[in-house]
Write a structure and sequence with these properties.
179 residues; alpha/beta; Rossmann fold; 5 helices
Length: 179
């Protein structure tokens, strides 16, 4: 068990995954450590002390782990945004660009009510495409994004700038340079 007050120390880097030249920031080591995981959740919650949050929205898949824990701590509901075809009820969809193609995410059409204050969470902010798609879905349902919270920001990939360009508040616990 690690002992550190810096979340970054709990995240391992895997070289050349999933492709050569990529430094993969693996948060599963953070999740597996009870002290590290608790610290991450507590630190992700800290900026929102005293704020009204109605629901936490988590982006598939590691955003579910974080979002569920954060929603529990806030005593609010949790809403998953999933890959196309994974939700059983009536959904709305949003396409977005990936590095090598496109993908679609969905949310139930009754998951968020107009005017609800939303905290959007995921483990990592890279290009911002998935987060932007999630933001669009929440806004189409009438929700208001209070903030977007991540454990890791990869600033060289431009996601933070993209989300801030959309008028979003963006919080990240740590940043790693490079891909």
């Amino acid at each position: 068990m690690r002992k550190s007050s810096d979340v970054k120390d709990y995240i391992r880097t895997i070289v050349d995954f999933p492709h050569e030249g990529i430094l993969f920031r693996d948060v599963t080591t953070l999740f597996a450590d009870p002290r590290g995981f608790r610290m991450a959740i507590d630190q992700m919650l800290h900026p929102y002390a005293g704020e009204r949050i109605d629901k936490v929205v988590g982006l598939e898949a590691r955003g579910f782990i974080l979002g569920g824990a954060i929603a529990h701590q806030l005593s609010v509901g949790f809403v998953p945004i999933r890959k196309k075809g994974k939700l059983p009820g009536t959904t709305i969809s949003q396409d977005y660009k990936l590095e090598y193609g496109e993908a679609i995410v969905e949310v139930h059409d009754d998951a968020i009510q107009a005017g609800e204050k939303i905290l959007l969470v995921d483990d990592l902010l890279a290009t911002g495409g998935t987060a932007e798609a999630g933001i669009k879905l929440v806004e189409r349902l009438g929700g208001e994004i209070l903030s977007c919270a991540f454990i890791v920001d990869l600033p060289d990939l431009g996601g933070r700038k993209k989300l801030e360009g959309l008028g979003m508040d963006v919080q990240a616990l740590c940043a790693f340079d490079g891909l």
